[in-house]
Amino acid sequence: MKKIIALTLMLVMVLALCGVAHADFAPNGPVTMIVAYKAGSGTDNTARVLAKYAEKYVGQTIVIENVEGGSGSIGWSQLADADPDGQTIGFINLPNFSSSIVNEMGTYTVESFAPIANHVTETSIVIVRANDDRFPDLEALVAYGKENEGTKNELLASTNGPQASNHIGAQAFANSAGFMYTDIPQGGTADQLLSLRGAEADFSVVKLADIVGQEAEYRILGVFADERLPELPDVPTLGELGYYEGWLGSSRCIVAPAGVSEDVVKFYEDAFKQAMEDPDYLAAAEQAGMATDYKDAETTGALIQQQQEFAESLAEGFWYDY
């Protein structure tokens, strides 16, 4: 009898150590993770790193499904319409997701999703091509923008879609520095960077992780942060140059379709927390330049709501008429 009790206690401990909790739910087959951008995009790259290390805590294969188009709205529509059975989860990108609701790009709302966890939070940066000698620093870019406003040489900015996160960054920069530009919207960050590299645009606002592995292609002129970033000690903040003050960037949140049970949310919340604390994951994330920023379901839900209010506040007085 004592031997049976000891074995039972040992089994309970093993299950706990393996992260097997909330026995009321466990996925019964491969888990689909919808990414609303193309393969090779910033979101796709970070999602694949996380999925690789999360599988042992989820207990199933995680299959990334790229559903691109509509600045993310097509993928988010598909995610919102998925069965709330715990077999389909996905990423929403803030504030792109919030802007898509403001602009009525889909039929979903904040309430169409159940928050699970935040994955990464990334700081926005202003970049130009590394070989573009016109812009050695941010002041030169601003001066050029002011001198050529309304001319055929007006500054061109490639963005990741109308009123998406990087378009918001470009607009915030231009508003604070007092120049105008022409937006060249793309379907996502990967295409936005391709447009800049191809000299279709003069500058872009992206997130730092978006150019990991491509740093030699670009010159970083400024960061949207309260203080200089440790990894970019020689790059000024926009605020210290008298432009946009404070932090600006984006978060990538894991959500499920609304209607999933609390057990589903708790299962994935715990699984992704363990994955993001896994030393092997953390080493891979550091190598990929990912700014891991785990937040639980409740905190992630509050973040999504706050970003929705932020996006709605930009509807008046922020966007100028082109």
Q: How many DSSP H or I helices?
A: 10
Helix content: 25-40%
Distance between the termini: 80 Å
- In this structure, how is the largest beta sheet organized? 10 strands, mixed
What is the averaged pLDDT score? Answer: 90
Tell me, what is the CATH class of the largest domain?
Answer: Alpha Beta
- Total strand segments: 10
Q: Which structural category do the helix and sheet elements fall into?
A: alpha/beta
Could you characterize the architecture of this molecule?
With 322 residues, the chain is an alpha/beta fold. The chain folds into 2 domains: 27-121 and 250-313, 3-Layer(aba) Sandwich (D-Maltodextrin-Binding Protein, domain 2), CATH 3.40.190; 123-241, D-Maltodextrin-Binding Protein, domain 2. Helices cover 38% and strands 20% of the residues. The chain contains 10 helices and 10 strands. Strands 1, 2, 3, 4, 5, 6, 7, 8, 9 and 10 form a 10-stranded mixed beta sheet that branches. Strand 1, helix 2 (42-58) and strand 2 form a beta-alpha-beta unit. Helix 2 (42-58) crosses helix 8 (262-277) and helix 4 (96-102) packs across helix 10 (297-313).
